Structures are given as structure tokens and as C-alpha cells.
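hey team, just a heads up i'm posting the complex here instead of the shared drive bc the drive is being weird again. everything in one block, sequence lines first with there labels, then the predicted structure for the whole assembly after. its two chains so it's a bit long, scroll down
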Amino acid sequence: MNATMNTGGKHDFHPDAESLSAFAEQALSGRERSQVLAHLAVCGRCRQVVALAQEAGLDADVRPAAAERPAIQPYAWWRSWRFAWIPAAALAASVALAVFVHTRHVDQSAEMAKNERQQVTQPAATPASPAQQERAQAASPVAAPAPAKSQARSFKRTSEGTAPNRPPQESVVTAAMPAEPSAMGRTEATRAEAEPASGATGQGSAGEGSAGERTTATYTPEPAVDAWQERQEKAAAGSEQRRLYAARAAAPTSARGTDGGAAGGSSQQVTVSVDQVAPQAQPAARFATQKNPLAAGIYAGAMKAIHLPSGLAAVSMAEAGHRTLAIDEAGTLFLSVDAGNHWETVTQQWTGRAVEVRAETKYSASATPAARAPANSSNDAGAAPSPASFFEILNDKNQAWLSTDGEIWVAK
Amino acid sequence: MAALPGALDRALLEELWRASDAAVWGLAREDFDRILLEVGTGWNCGSAEGLQASRQQQAAFFRGLRLADLVLARACAAGNERAWERFIAVYRQPLVRAATAITGSETLGRDLADQLYAELYGLTVRDGKRRCPLHSYRGRGSLMGWLRTTLAQRHVDHHRRTRHEEPIEEFDAPASDPAPGQPAGELSALGRAIEEALEKREAEDRFLLAAYYLDGQTLKQIAGVLGVHEATVSRKLRRAIEEIRKQVLRNLQSSGLSRRAAQDALGADPRDLDVPLKKLLQNSQTETFKEQAAP
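-- predicted structure starts here --
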């Protein structure tokens, strides 16, 4: 270890510059390092030297890039912002795109609502088939889309002063469809025309526009678009099932839709076996045009959604008033009085294994269970306002038991 | 150590010669061997004074040298023009930047760098001989680190030589009246206990305490010097303080105070104490440098 003489320092002898430098660079052996450290512990001058050299090293590492720059740069104020333009421009473009998409979506929604109202007031004003559409377009002052244009993939809008043409099933489909992604650039009406069930060959027209402006859109449906529509319809069917089931749980008659809408207070009998659930679920996606599979699908989904205390799947379910009964795969009967949120096991008062439960309603004051009428067939609007509901279960030997509250059962 | 070159493995010397590119700067092989002898003797190959380094230790020591920097510095000291061109190209600007950072002023920094540069170039003549500080560089650390440390040394020494006594702006007056219940004997015992506790601390702890509390360096600065993380410095500082406190308590108890009295004594107003902490931390010159400075 070397020491150099410094006359101005408090201590006469200090480690030389190389020892201090090597100490800071961790280049000394353990013994040498401890010697320098022992000196640094008592020498403020050397601590200061080491600290300054260390800081100068850090600064020198940071400064070179800045030091190489010329002192004066023309347009330096602008160049300093040149990289800020990139994110600023990207941000502005994003905002503009978002505003455009939002505005377009709002316009489409407003037009859809307007078209809905027109469809309700003039349901028969539009042709249903391509031939009818052609006739209507020929008779209409609106220019019919040319066949060449109909092959185009994208929209072509033309200003139009008349009401848009719609297929007859549009109102049903539109009501069932969820909101369409605005990026697709299509309205509910155009999508309804693309449905194979409509019989269209790929050509159609629909109203579209904003703030009173109406346009005609021509397009050719594509397999990919149809597949997307299929998925959207299935999703809509699923959400519709959930919505209807929830509404049905709150008010059991609402699930009957148009068939049972007039029979206020009547209950519905639904019996779906496990084997029937799977095949009926797929047709339920087509509920827009198939009503019976819809009901089956709804209740199949409802039973799947039931979580019975036994952990088994429900094979039969019925409800009347605010009471719901369900039979699981083991034949155990469960009762719920809160729309399926909580279930209680009903003590078995029958023989054999329960396989089916039904709910029926009688609309006469003196009605007896024996004189019951099936709920599905009692849709007359003149039914008695105070129906009497009762349940019936069947065992595996086709023997029946009756109950008015689902808890106490008597043999039929 | 005079027999060092002969003791060195010829293969090692050949390896070092090839690795150093000394021939590029006009150094002869004999000069290179002589430089290695000088360096090895000066550092004793990293071994303790009076001990003979083994061949393995010698090999490790020489392989750890900054040979490229070493031969460049020696070539510059010998007046090799190409070496100076290389030195200027590599170190001139960093030297100015380091001096600017050390002085905190571009003007002062440039002056400091120019002064050192003139010395390095050998404009200083003493006893009829051209003196170049680069002769003292022996390749233990980097040449740039050596240059920075040399600049810092000159700046600190210049500052200490030329600084004027300035009035103390904030005079920390001692407490006027010692707290009741703190007799003078107890305070003096506390002072002695603190002195003993500080003297017993290891060098690293004293360095940490001095750098942090006396020099006002930050944890980051201290960590950079020691080559450890800031958290390590913080943890060591906290531990050192706790141990000093415990040691002071033990010293007080060993001087006859009860534990309760010792704890009460620690609560004394520091301004009542006559403990020259700065003196304690700064005034104990290490034996190593005393011995080496003796001749």
C-alpha cells in the first residue's frame, strides 16, 4: 500500500489516488481494502476525494450524450417537440375514431327505433319474398340496387325519401337480436334480410341514416357473416332464456309469451326429461321462428340452472303461483317458494319413485283436482279470475298423487 | 521482491505481454518486464507487507491489472506521440467533464482539467527531469478512475488550502442549564462511555458513521463507494447505532451506574455533553499509513 504526502491535509499521509480509485472500483484485495477503509473511517479528506470521484464518474457516464450535442441548434424548440407529435397525433386519431364510431352507433340505434315504430304501424307494407321485393322496388320511385352492386361486399348508401323495405319477420328477429357491433356497419334490418329463413337470395335493402336522412344499403350475405349471425342469435337466445326465466320466476305466466299472455294467473305444465334437454337446446337458438322449441329450450335451460340440494339435475319441474316443485334424477321432490333460490325436500308420501311433476289450474270456484284442465289448453280470456292450482306427481308406475301446496300429498 | 521477475512464470509474462498490446505503443519487451517488476514490487502482488506472494497469487495479481491502461500511461509518460494521440482521443473530454462535475463549475472544471493535463504532458520539470504523474499509475484500477481521483484530490487539497475561515451561520449554543438530575459526574461518565464505544467500532462502522453524519453523504453515495446497495448501507448504519447504544449502556453500568441510571443518562441533552465526536472519528490515524510514511 502506498502513501503520498499531502502538506495541506489534516493527516500527513493518505492513500494515493490509485489506491482510492481501486478501492472505489472494488479492485483491491480484502486486506488492502480493509486498510483503505480504516483510513477512510478517520480521514474526511479522503472520504471527500472518493465521494467526489465517484460522483464525477456517475456524471461522466450520464453526460457524454448531451455533451456531444452542438451548443446551438436551429429550430431546437421545434425539434425538442418532434417526438411529442407522434403520441399526440395517435391520441387525436383515436379520439376522432371513437367519436365517429360512437356517433354512427347512436345514429343506427335511432334509425332502428324509428324503423321499429314504422314496422309496428305498417306491418304489411313490405314484400316478404325476393320476388315481392323486386316488384315493390320496381313500383317504388326508389332505385333498386343493381345486381352488380348487390355482389359488392361493402355497403353502398344512396339517399332515399321513402320508408325502407323490410321482410315480414324483421320485427321478430330485431326484437330478439342484441345490439349489433357498430364495426360491422350493418343494421338489424339488413341482417334480418340476410337470414336464410327469409328466402332472400342475398339481395335486400334496408333503411339507414341519421337525423332524418334515409339510405339504402345493398350487400351480399357471406358465410362468415352468417356464422357471426348464428353466434349472435344463439347468444341472444341464451340471454333471452335467462331473461324470460327470471321474469317467469317473478311472474310465472310471463314466460308463456304470446300463447299464454291472455291467460293471466294460469300456471304452465312443463315436463322435460333429461334425454330431451340436449336435442332441444340447439333448436332453441332459432326461437325467432320456432315457438315450441323455444319453450322447451327455456325450461331445459331453467332446469339446468336449478341447483337442487341433492346436487343432481332436475328431471321435472312445475310451478303454480309462487310455489315451484322439482324432481331430481333420484326421484326426490323439492319445493321452493322463492322462485328457485332455496329448496326444501318434500317428505315422500307416495310409493315408488317420482318421475314427473305437473301443475294444473282449475278456473271454477268448485273445481276439484279430478276436474282439472291442462293449463296449456286453457287460454281463453274469459277464464275465472280466481283459479285454483294444484300439483300432481307421477311415480315410475304411472300412479298419481295430488297436492295443493306441494307439501301434503294424497293419492289420486 | 527483487527476484520477482525471475520468479514469474515466463509463460505468464508472455501472456501478459500479448494481452497488453505494449508493442503497439513502442514499448520493448524489456521495458514491459521492468514495468511489471516495478508494479509487483510496489503492491507486493497484493500480499501483506513482508510476505512473499506465491506464484498463484502473483499470477492472479498481474492478471487483475489494467494492462492496456498501464502500457498506454507508461507510453505517454515516455513521450510516445501515438500514445498521446490515443490518450487525448479517449480521455481528454471525459477529463474535462469529470473536472466540471467535481468543481461544480465549467470554468473551474476546465481550469482544473487543463492544469492536470499540463502536468500529465510533462510540462513540469523538477530537478532537471521532466515529471509526469502518469508514471505513478500502476494499473490497479482503471486509468479513468485514477484520473478522476487525481482531479478530486487536487480540488479538495486546493479547496482546503485556499478556503477562508467563515463565520458559523447557525451557532448551536449549548444548553444553558443542565437538566436537573444530570450531575456533572454522570455526564462525564456518559462522555467516556461514548468515546470507548466509538473506539471499539470497526473501521467500516466508523466510515459509515463519519460519511453519513459528519460528511452528510447520502446513502446512495456511500453505497457507490462501498459497492453495495443502499439498503445494505442503511441496515448497517442502523445496526451500528444500536450496537453503540448498547455498548454505551454497558460502559455506563461497568462504571458503576445502575441500569436505570444508565438509561436515564442516555436521555441527557447532547448539548450538555463534551464529547468531540468529530475528533473521535477523524483523529485516529491508521497505523498502516503511519508506518509507510515513516521513511
